[in-house]
Each structure stands twice: as structure tokens, then as C-alpha cells.
From TrEMBL:
Pfam families: PfkB. This is Kinase, PfkB family. Keywords: Kinase, Transferase. One of its GO terms (molecular function) is kinase activity. Belongs to the carbohydrate kinase PfkB family. It comes from the Bacteria. The keyword Glycosyltransferase does not apply. It comes from Segatella salivae DSM 15606. Residues 2-313 form the Carbohydrate kinase PfkB domain. CDD domains: KdgK.
Length: 340
């Protein structure tokens, strides 16, 4: 298995129990999580040497996040300690026609105010096979964006494959700012992952698809995949295609392009959704594992989509499934019968 490095922010998620609303809750559950941290946990579960890079305060609240990663086998030696706070976010789980809601309280977190000097990226990337980051990290601060750039440069010096999940967050930055930061960073990227909103808001590529109307035909993505591949030189362009029938019922599939062939995955009908937070991260992790393990874009994509479909059934940010469970679903075992 490979050494995989991820870089980003791990936060503490505070959520009401079940489908309670914020305003009626007297207590909150704590779930550590964050884009690249979620990816690292999945990859550790698949047997990889998953390393998470971030900065966290040295106090006990920071230690909660570190301990959560260690619990699932993620290597934490590259986490710099310092700063004043761990980012928080509040997540209310929707149901039926009521959407889920997220409220951020992450300004001035330790990683948002970290310096390049907090990390030795040449040491971190030594012997690494893969480096993954998401568009959330450069969105949290200009300093974090510079750290991403330096990390990408080090990855390229060491011959490491680089992937990005574009992951546009409108509560963190505007499309104009995202495009100005993200497009220059694409020169370092080998595998570009995103959905229709991400490609449009981060890179200026808009697919021919009516997502709100539930029309996500893969053909509508073909031309923008070709354009992105030509402009940025990606080895793979990948998009998830979510059909949101309600907050608790989604359709789920994905599309991959290697510059020669498009492949569309099988479709999953996910109903009811237990928790969709981390669904995209579980997809990214599944794709990384698939491309490292199978060397076949079709099989890699099917693993990624199955992994993400399973994540929708698990509370919390982390996708706590094994390789064998994902492969079983990818092969068609979706009856949910008790395993004795």
C-alpha cells in the first residue's frame, strides 16, 4: 500500500441528535472531521499509510482532533502544534423537503493562520506516492493558499501524484476569488475531482446539465472534461453526479475521463440518507485507492462510487468501511441482509 499525504483543516462538528433542529436542541454531538482529514481516515481504513498535515492548538481541544485521527490509523506526526483555536462548524441534518444546514465558526483557526515555516514539505513528500488537497484549504485564508502552493511544488519535486477535490464553498469565498487562486494551482494537479458547481465556480467550466431539475446526463459533461484536460493537462478528470430528490433521498453516480475514454459508473439510489457530510471526501478517497490499486479507471470509479454510497449510511464525517465492504457493494451486493 502507498504513502498518501493529505493537507487541510480538521474541525469539530457540532450536530443536534437525529433530525432535531438547532433551535430545539439542548445538547450537540461532537464529530471531528474535515475534507482532507476524512480522506485520510478512509485511506487508512483501506490499508494505506495515510498522513494528515495540518496545524492544531496544543491544548486539549486540539488533542481531540489528533486523537480522532490516530484512532483510525492516520499518521499525525506532520501535524504542527500551535495557534489558538480549532475550527468549528454546526451541522443540522435535513429530512425530506427540509435541507440540511451548515454554520461555520472557523475564522482564525490554527491552520488558517499557519506559516509555511510550520512544515517541512520536502520531508513530508519524501517517499510519498500521492498528495491530496481540496479547494476548501486555500479558501480559508491567503496564508493557507500559499501553503497549498508550496506543498504542491514539493510534491512535484518528489514525483508525487497530486489530486484535488475542487470543493467550492460559497460561505468561504466568491467564485471570482476561487478562480484567481485555483486556476494557477491546476498546473500541479494530475487528477481533478469535482462536481458541476465546483468546475464552474472554481475553474469557469459549466457543464450542460440541469442539476436542480435532476438532469445529470453524463453527455453534458463531455465537452468541459475535454476542455479542462486540454487546458490544464490533467491525467484524469472526474465528476460526481448527484440527483437530489430530497434531503433524505439522492441518486448517485460518477464520470471519469482519461483523455481517451469516458466511463460512467453504475447508479445508486440512496434512500434514506443517514448523513451525507463527507460523501464527496469518501468518493475522493475511494478514487485514490482505486487508481493506486487497480490501474483501471472503470474499476477505480466503481470502487469510489460504492464507497461514497456507503458513507451516506454512516453518521459523522468519517467513512468507516473496509475495502471488502466496498468491493462487495461494487459487485452488486446491495440487499442489506444481516451478515452472520
Amino acid at each position: 500500500m502507498g504513502k498518501i499525504v493529505t493537507l487541510g483543516e480538521i474541525m469539530l462538528r457540532l450536530s443536534p441528535t437525529g433530525n432535531y433542529r438547532f433551535v430545539q436542541s439542548e445538547s450537540f454531538q461532537i464529530f471531528p472531521g474535515g475534507g482532507e482529514a476524512n480522506v485520510a481516515v478512509s485511506l487508512a481504513n483501506y490499508g494505506h499509510a495515510a498522513c494528515f498535515v495540518s496545524k492544531l492548538p496544543s491544548h486539549e481541544i486540539g488533542q481531540i482532533a489528533v486523537n480522532a485521527l490516530r484512532r483510525y490509523g492516520v499518521k499525525t506526526e506532520y501535524i504542527s502544534r500551535g495557534g489558538d483555536r480549532v475550527g468549528l462548524y454546526y451541522a443540522e441534518t435535513g429530512a425530506s423537503m427540509r435541507p440540511s444546514k451548515v454554520i461555520y465558526d472557523r475564522a482564525h483557526s490554527a491552520i488558517a493562520e499557519a506559516d509555511i515555516s510550520d512544515f517541512d514539505f520536502d520531508k513530508i513528500m519524501e517517499d510519498a506516492d500521492w498528495f491530496h488537497w481540496s479547494g476548501i484549504t486555500p479558501a480559508i485564508s491567503d496564508k493557507a493558499a500559499e501553503i497549498v502552493r508550496v506543498a504542491c511544488e514539493a510534491a512535484k519535486r518528489h514525483g508525487v501524484t497530486v489530486s484535488v477535490d475542487l470543493n467550492f464553498r460559497k460561505k468561504l469565498w466568491t467564485s471570482e476569488k476561487a478562480i484567481s487562486v485555483m486556476r494557477p494551482l491546476m498546473q500541479y494537479v494530475d487528477v481533478c475531482i469535482g462536481n458541476e458547481e465546483d468546475a464552474n465556480m472554481c475553474l469557469g467550466y459549466k457543464p450542460d446539465a440541469d442539476v436542480e431539475g435532476g438532469k445529470t446526463d453524463a453527455e453534458g459533461y463531455y465537452e468541459i472534461f475535454k476542455g479542462m484536460m486540454k487546458e490544464f493537462g490533467f491525467k484524469y478528470v472526474v465528476s460526481t453526479l448527484r440527483e437530489s430528490y430530497s434531503a433524505s433521498h439522492n441518486g448517485w453516480k460518477a464520470l471519469i475521463y482519461d483523455g481517451k475514454t469516458f466511463y460512467e459508473s453504475k447508479h445508486y439510489d440512496i434512500n434514506p440518507i443517514i448523513d451525507r457530510v463527507g460523501g464527496g471526501d469518501s468518493f475522493s478517497a475511494g478514487l485514490i485507492h482505486g487508481l493506486l490499486s487497480y490501474k483501471d479507471q472503470a474499476k477505480a470509479l466503481e470502487f469510489a462510487v460504492a464507497a461514497s454510497a456507503l458513507k451516506h449510511t454512516i453518521p459523522g464525517d468519517f467513512n468507516l468501511v473496509s475495502t471488502s465492504e466496498v468491493e462487495s457493494l461494487a459487485k452488486g451486493n446491495a440487499n442489506g441482509r444481516v451478515q452472520r
